[in-house]
Amino acid sequence: MPYTRRHVLRLGTATLVVAAVPAVSLPALAAAAVTADLVIYGATSAGIAAAVTARRLGRSALIVEPGAHVGGLSTGGLGMTDSGVKAAIGGLAGEFYRRVYAKYNGTAVTPTSPARFTFEPHVAATIFDELLAEAAVPVYLNTRLSGVTMSGNRITELACDNGQAFRAPMFVDATYEGDLMARAGVGWTAGREANSAYGETINGVQLRSGHQFNRFVDPYVTAGSAASGLLPGISAAPVAPTGSGDGRIQAYNFRMCLTQAANRIPFAKPTGYDAIGYEPLARYVQAGYTGPFFTTHQVGGGKTDSNNDGAFSTDFIGQNYTYPTASYATRASMVEEHRVYQQGLMWFLANDPRLPASVRSATASWGLAADEFTGNGGWPTQLYIREARRMVSAYVMTEADCRGGRTAADSVGLASYTMDSHNCQRVVVAGALKNEGDVQIGVPQPFGISYRSIVPVESQCANLLVPVCLSASHIAYGSIRMEPVFMILAQSAATAAHLAITAGSAVQQVPIASLQARLRADGQLLTWPLTTPGEIVVDSSTSAGVTRAGVWLKSTSIAGYHGADYEHDDNTNKGVNRLRFTPAIPVTGSYQVFLRWTSHANRASNVPVDVCAGGTVTTRTVDQRTGGGQWVSLGTFTLPAGSSPTAASVLIRTEATDGYVVADAARFVAA
What is the distance between the alpha carbons of residues 83 and 140, in angstroms, rounded to a whole number? Predict the structure, then answer.
């Protein structure tokens, strides 16, 4: 059988496909174990990033993939990257998106070249192929984990169902499901924690307005008759109190690559189609709903990344609860059920006579891209596993990390996307159909992810790193679970594995300072705002270096602030309210001084700011109606060493100001 792409690496007597999609099944392999410095389970984008990083650090690495698909969601249809703050994406992840730009524009890839975050699936697959080929990484496809051998708290060998075994001093679980982690006896959880578990506010059961039925839809087989039973996929259980924990997980779907090109593949009725499954949508349309029914975000080549949109769309809500712990065979059946549901939905939208002709014709104007997923009839080969197992380790990322309420000192990468959970169940509320579980709450700025959250408790496993199914609450994982972040954390995981091998230590004992220094040298971004050598930041949300007069109120209502929050004068007590930032200057010298605030039309346009430098006061006036969310220079000053308000400080005053005055942070950078 020919490969669709031609990267093949010969290792001993075995021929291994390197990132070929679709892949042939491997022949029977020799019983002797294959060894490497780093064995990675899962050829997701994270698995590829980990392997390439290890090779660039001079280590041998290989990937074991239970299926035939390489690249995870990044090659599986998610061509409109959920990136959050793009400037927070560094390292190998940033390089991947720069390679995307270069592929479309025929330009060179450099550390400062432009990045592109939308792409066709086959383009992403080609780039991953090239990265794997350049690094000479073997990928063992269709090789499923069947057992793990432990020596004390260390993995020594992975056994797979084709008789092959893999040995290494270090391992990475890069699967979306956390299978290696679980086999190694590492603690994990699945589902939603109660808000009380970690002091959160938006975890657990959440009956909200997002992707919600906003018209009355009868949930019963015979409308108006509870005795007729509920339509398929609707829970009969009463809705638990808001914030209650349960075992439910957010819905999965396929990210379709659609086109309106003449050679598109029309939506076909799948075998197993049952119209009753789409009855709620039919009733919703009859009640006046006109769409949207799915997204059509353009990614290039006249193609889309089409995702769930609305109360009844491509998410197969409530049909994935057992997926995280299911066998490979059962998972395959569940993937098939998701395919039948979603293909059936598209056929329904394009053909069902109960729908208006306008809906049917609009849907039928789209079809599957004929040149994507060519071995699978144009249908994506990767189900979107939005959430499965999550490790429970020494540091659990929570809502507090996302909102800036706490900051991990051992950051190994940044996340910045909205705390995002898709709906988890369909329920009946006061006789009407509702969805439950959707949460979409933004984060104020990029936040650091703790190294402790990607390594297990040492007593459980000392040579495993988990950059995908990391230690996080359900709602924090909703922000972290993005492909760029998985690649970022995988680079950090492989770097830590390299340092642990060098030191002969457990991954938990890798010195954080050494790890962070190596990561920064390789382009990884670890803190936000991005810092530079010789930089000192004094933030209003910390006590050190901040003094106040009058009354200042904390707020997070306007994005763009530094740290956990900002403060404002409530537009009162003018001339009384003052706030001073005093840095600890390490060495006498020339420093550029910056101030930060958040902007709004209600802000003051004439805020007086005094810069104290060596006993001299220079007053600037800043307009806080503009320039928010960035560092605004106040000038360059000579500042003496030490920590003295008269020698080096920034004072924000409020007298005669014409609106709210904001105090967020000051920054001092050695010139």
Answer: 29
* Rounded Cα distance, 213 and 368, in Å: 28
Decide if pLDDT at 75 tops 90: yes
Tell me yes or no: is domain 535-670 CATH 3.90.1200.10: no
Model pTM score: 0.80
| Domains 1-23+30-387+420-444+464-469 and 535-670 are alike in CATH topology | no
Residue 635, beta-bridge partner list: 593
pLDDT in the model for residue 531: 62
Alpha-carbon torsion 111, 117, 118, 123, what sign?
Answer: positive
Residues 6+ apart with CB under 8 A from 361: none
Two tokens, residue 339: 């395919």
Backbone CA torsion sign across 371, 375, 378, 383: negative
**6 has pLDDT over 70:** no
Rounded alpha-carbon distances, angstroms, from residue 31 to 11, 28, 165, 548: 14, 9, 7, 71
For the chain, domain boundaries: 1-23+30-387+420-444+464-469, 535-670
How far is Cα 657 from Cα 360, in angstroms, rounded to an integer? 58
- SS3 label, residue 324: helix
The mean predicted confidence, pLDDT, of the chain is 93
Cβ proximity of 669 and 532 under 8 Å: yes
CATH superfamily name and code, 1-23+30-387+420-444+464-469: FAD/NAD(P)-binding domain (3.50.50.60)
First to last CA, the chain: 62
Cα distances (Å, whole numbers) of residue 218 to 172, 291, 334, 425, 437: 48, 18, 27, 16, 20
Q: How far is CA 50 from CA 28, 168, 203, in A?
A: 27, 14, 30
Burial of 207-223, coded b for 16+ CB within 10 Å and e otherwise, reads ebebbebeeebbbbeee
Degrees to nearest 5, angle at CA 72 with 484 and 252: 95
Q: Give me the mean pLDDT over the 492-500 stretch.
A: 98
Q: What is the pLDDT of residue 4?
A: 34
* C-alpha closest to that of 441 among 386, 401, 485, 478: 478
Kindly provide the residue ranges of all beta strands, DSSP E only, lying in 502-657, ordered along the sequence: 535-539, 546-549, 553-555, 566-568, 578-581, 589-596, 607-613, 616-622, 632-639, 648-653
In which band, very low, low, confident or very high, does the pLDDT at 533 lie, cut at 50, 70 and 90?
Answer: low
The three-class DSSP label of residue 317 is: coil
